[in-house]
Amino acid sequence: MSRFRGLMAGVVTWGIAFALPGAAARDAPEIAAGFEGIARVGAWTPVAVRPSQGGEARPRVFVWAEDADGDLVRSPPARWRTDVSGGQVAETTVRCGRPGGRLRIDIDEERHEAGVPTLLPSWQRVVLVLGELPSIERVCRLLEQEGSPRPRPVTVKRPHELGRTPLDFDAADAIVVCGSAIAERERITEEVLAAIDGWVRRGGHMLLLAGPSAGPVAAAGGAAARWLPGAIEKVVPLR
Description:
About 30% of the residues lie in helices and about 30% in strands. By secondary structure, the protein is an alpha/beta fold.
């Protein structure tokens, strides 16, 4: 009987040992930093944190990033918003001071470690693309031939998840917005467009590509409609 109890105790012990790693993985938040995981040394970097538990709870969230000396610097409290799927997202911005550093996420009393995104050198130019623009790679190659380093194009796959403040776009040297992405409502939300508009008003460079989509962009109103050069009367083909 005592041997049977010992065997059962061993089974229970092993069951707990295998269950614990799965529970820890479920507790880890989902962390997204930069543009498609790309940021630039010294520039403000957007960080989005999605706690694993979901629900309506909005705990206090802080993000720590290493500066150039390797010291952790804390962000202001993250701002909460509800995303398009109804989930809760905490957003803030940090400066990543060196490649290979780390991020620390504080959610109330819990601490989580995460690696920094791919950090480009501070001199590397970045072109952010919202929408489908296959020719952007060729454009960047041509810019390199003019005697300056080739810009790094970054195409955003989920533009509705971009930041909501002008500071979130600090790492971009130029932003290309495709009118089709606005017209189709994939969607670049009005909050994201307003943040880009604020970034432009602070000195950023933005290019709006709108051929047949110019009409729907104008009809949608908001920041993108103000980027158009004037009223759209009709669209004519150019050969």
